[in-house]
Amino acid sequence: MKSFKIYLQEESERQMRLGDFVEVGTNVKDPHFYIVRRGAEHEVGKPTKKPNPQHFGFRVINTDSLDPNYAFYLMHHIANTGHYKQFATGSTKLVNIRANHITDIPLGIRQ
């Protein structure tokens, strides 16, 4: 069993993730934009402003910490670098990603 001191040390060194700042899912209320969750391999993970029940809603929880417009372009960059190809599951023509593939993206910020 870990001591409380070790637990606090590990938590203080924990890298922050995108999920610490945003809510991602199929039932997000008033999303700022949407993320394609099912489609061609080159399409999944891309952000869009068009509502679609097949997409994940993406909402920034605290807009003082992360601007939704910046998050939109950040998600474009991440998708264009091919980040989601390693997670895409399904057939060769229709693949899927999960919400945690988005929320688990490390930000390089220590708590």
The gist of it:
The protein is α+β, with helices and mostly antiparallel strands and 111 residues long. Helices cover 25% and strands 25% of the residues.
Describe this structure in words.
The chain is of the alpha+beta class and 111 residues long. The protein has a single domain (16-110), classed as Adenine-n6-DNA-methyltransferase TaqI, Chain A, domain 2 (Alpha-Beta Complex). Helices cover 25% and strands 25% of the residues. It has helices at 4-13, 68-80, 99-103; strands at residues 15-17, 22-25, 33-35, 38-39, 47-48, 56-60, 89-90, 95-96, 106-110. It is globular, with a radius of gyration of 16 Å. The mean pLDDT is 88.
